[in-house]
Amino acid sequence: MKVSKAIFKAKACELFRHVEMLGEPVVVTDRGEPTIEIRLYRSKRQDPLGLLRASILHFHVEHASEIEHASGMEHASAMELVSGPALVEQED
Questions:
Q1: Confidence band for 45, pLDDT divided at 50, 70 and 90
Q2: Residues 70-83 pLDDT 10s
Q3: Where are the domains of the chain?
Q4: What's the sign of the alpha-carbon dihedral 12, 16, 21, 24?
Q5: How many other C-beta atoms can be found within 10 angstroms of the C-beta atom of residue 74?
Q6: Cβ-based burial of 51 (10 A; exposed 0-12, middle 13-18, buried ≥19)
Q7: Is 70 left (phi over 0), alpha (psi -120 to 50) or beta?
């Protein structure tokens, strides 16, 4: 949504609520030229697990031994090769 500086001045609180509720940014213009964009704040800190979620798209158990053998890492599980080190200690 685009609004002039004069309209923004008169309806700032209403426009803030619009951004908060709908998540749609508002561009404030001065003489028809965009000068300011008002949008929802998003923290740059992201949940590390959220970033990893859905990162493994396919995992075929029947191919696990082929992956381990081809990589020369028989001691590591195929799941570790795909998703990283295991979080649980393995028994010897």
A1: confident
A2: 655 555 454 554 54
A3: 2-38, 48-83
A4: positive
A5: 9
A6: exposed
A7: alpha
